[in-house]
């Protein structure tokens, strides 16, 4: 699609959008602007407004995500795939923080069990390092609503890979 066509489509959408659609468009624009300024984060991290906090010993991590219209499904609760993305992002961030420079981690397996609807204003994913070997890392993640109720539990495995 050419730039001019995209601009025309965007203008049409912005003019005809209702308040909820304008809110979602605003989130998308804001995430792209943030990505331009802070080149270190991925587009998805910016879009979901993920905010991480790693402990000083590097074995636990918390990642916060606001519940916005963008992440809700047709039942008005947080979409399960978004919760899985939050967990994978949090566990992957923690896994990556444990490897030396010149190495990275990639998800090899993740299991998510949904416990309660993810509603409220914000979700918090807490991750713990279970095992770190020479080739793999295993982590546990839990997602809580802002009222403290557990929404989802997960385990994930990550390969340690040498980057060029």
How would you sum up this structure, described in words?
With about 160 residues, the protein is α+β, with helices and mostly antiparallel strands. It has four helices and six strands; from the N terminus they run αααββαββββ. It is globular and about 55 Å long. A hairpin with a 5-residue loop joins strand 1 (about 50-55) and strand 2. Helices cover about 35% and strands about 35% of the residues.
**Radius of gyration, taken over Cα atoms and rounded to an integer in Å:** 18 Å
Order of helices and strands: HHHEEHEEEE
Assembly classification: single chain
What does the overall shape look like? globular
- Unreliable segments of 5+ consecutive residues: none
Estimate percent helicity.
Answer: 25-40%
How many strands, what sense, and barrel or not for the largest sheet?
Answer: 6 strands, antiparallel
Beta-strand content: 25-35%
Mean pLDDT: 92
Instruction: Kindly report the spatial arrangement of strands forming the biggest sheet.
Output: 1-2-4-5-6-3
Can you count the beta strands?
A: 6
Please tally the helical runs, counting DSSP H or I stretches of 4 or more residues: 4
Distance between the termini: 34 Å
Coarse structural class = alpha+beta
